[in-house]
Amino acid sequence: MKVMVGGTFDPLHDGHKSLLGRSFEIAGSSGQVVIGLTTDSFASGKTHPIRPFASRKSELEEFIREKKFATPWIIEPLNDRFGSAIDADFDAIVVSEETLPVAVEINRHRREKGRRKVDIHQISCVLAEDGRWISSTRIYRGEIDVHGHVLR
Amino acid sequence: MKVMVGGTFDPLHDGHKSLLGRSFEIAGSSGQVVIGLTTDSFASGKTHPIRPFASRKSELEEFIREKKFATPWIIEPLNDRFGSAIDADFDAIVVSEETLPVAVEINRHRREKGRRKVDIHQISCVLAEDGRWISSTRIYRGEIDVHGHVLR
Asked: pTM of the predicted model, to two decimals?
């Protein structure tokens, strides 16, 4: 099936890798994965500095190539929370527990526009060593590394 | 991946077929689908009469065989809302918009027991001709048929 997933992916941590891995798994080899990557101007709303779009895109591409996923994929710039997800023809959106509300909102907008709702696949978040979620904010603060190891 | 899905499936309508089809698609050919089928005593809480477990199971098996899904599958009796989903080792639970709260509850119980949460895949409900959900209750009332055609 055709799957959409989105994020800022900075840095690309084990939670992101699980989100992306699951997206490819669900799409299957005959499907497609569309990855929305936040633009610098949209991502600038975050509470910590973000690397430029091009760097984040390269890291993402490198991970996908290394994994040798069989499913075709593309990276699209995300200028807002929804990107093309309200108007595009696709089957499922993959989200974390944190971003589930965005998917619910996308379906509400799709229904208002007379489009069919899409499936929502919520992955279970990857936990750091301390039992809390891995997140970019925690990595930026120096609490954990990209694999969820506690640093202090 | 290993996927769990559950229901009463009486009668097996297009909404159920979409739920099951998606479960097999997500599981992939190297995965497994565990279908929880409500027992007669558990299903007796419904507002309308339910056919016996054996009849519902045959209809389910016939549908799966006709579809020639590549994924191994089993049918388990469901004696309560959770069945084996709180203790089993699996990856994702597939639910409709109606049964989403059960999946959220399952994850809460899993976490309490120190087990990892599972992914929750919520399919978009299949709509009847009149734009409302296909449901067994509506079919039983004679409002629509199993394909969602309006009968009166």
From this structure: 0.91
Residue A146 · residue A14 · CB < 8 Å: yes
- 3-state DSSP percent of chain A in helix, strand and coil, to 5: 35, 20, 45
Count of alpha carbons within 13 angstroms of residue B45, beta-carbon side:
8
**ipTM exceeding the 0.85 mark:** yes
* A121·B123 Cβ contact <8 A: no
| B28/A92 Cβ within 8 A | no
Closest-CA residue of chain B to A121: B121
Cβ neighbours of A89 (radius 10 Å): 9
B90: nearest CA in chain A? A124
Residue of B nearest to A107 (CA): B124
pLDDT, one tens digit for every residue, chain A (152 residues): 999 999 999 999 999 999 999 999 999 999 999 999 999 999 988 888 899 999 999 999 999 999 999 999 999 999 999 999 999 999 999 999 889 999 999 999 999 999 999 999 999 888 889 888 888 888 888 999 999 999 97
Q: Which residues of A touch B92 (CB under 8 A)?
A: 121
- Touching check for A124 and chain B: CB below 8 Å? yes
